[in-house]
From TrEMBL:
Record GO biological process: 'de novo' pyrimidine nucleobase biosynthetic process; 'de novo' UMP biosynthetic process
Family recorded in the similarity comment: Belongs to the OMP decarboxylase family. Type 2 subfamily.
Record NCBIfam families: pyrF_sub2
Protein name as catalogued: Orotidine 5'-phosphate decarboxylase
Catalysed transformations (reactions): orotidine 5'-phosphate + H(+) = UMP + CO2
Location of the active site: 99
Entry-linked Gene3D superfamilies: Aldolase class I (3.20.20.70)
Species of origin: Rhodocyclus tenuis
UniProtKB keywords: Decarboxylase, Lyase, Pyrimidine biosynthesis
Amino acid sequence: MHTTSTFIDRLNAAWTTRNSLLCVGLDPDPAKFPAHLSGGPDAIFEFCKAIVDATADLACAFKPQIAYFAARRAEDQLEALIAHIRERHPEVPVILDAKRGDIGSTAEQYAVEAFERYRADAVTVNPYMGRDSIEPYLAWSDRGVILLCRTSNPGGSDLQFLDVGGERLFERVARLAAGEWNHTGQLALVVGATFPAEIARVRELTGDMPLLVPGIGAQGGDVEATVKAGRSSAGSGLMINSSRAILYAGKGEDFAQAARAVALATRDAINRYR
């Protein structure tokens, strides 16, 4: 437990000390690993560890996606990876991208998984089931809970754009997250980089709430439009995630250095528009 600081505190510190709004997503796909790592028993850990060590000073957060580990029975390697980040790069918060969404005792168990088993600083949660699906995570007062709001996938509009009493559903989620749901100050939102106008609308509704923004890089989101739409009054407020473009920048033994080069270029591109 981080008894002296909250996820939001740690994120604010990382934005400042690293001069970075870049979140490095960790989505390890062994089929894309360099040949010298393929087939090893701890290949997922070794690959991600090398990426982490090469990019930690450029990142405001790391975001491991749990499915990439669980699908390959590599949850132990995810535990080891987060332990490594905490030991070697303790100033960089870890977001467990799990998109959990359930109520009551089940949500309590998901919270234990994220915050005790994996020791993540924050977790992504689907708010579709409402306030009581979010509350169990808030019992960990030093952790963050990042709610899906306006997602970057093409089908996001199927539900998120529905009119609900004169506003769109994603706007309702943003308003609730900035208001009555956020009584502990732990919430943040996911808003995709593929929709700059909606990022701007969420920022308008939520003040300086942190926003996790996937969709630049491989998904084609525009960095300039994203930053200008989403930056807070202090010129921060964003965790702009890039995963594949950084992870698979190189295919040889120097893959980590190649990842660093792309991470550095991405961080600097983001900073040009702050």
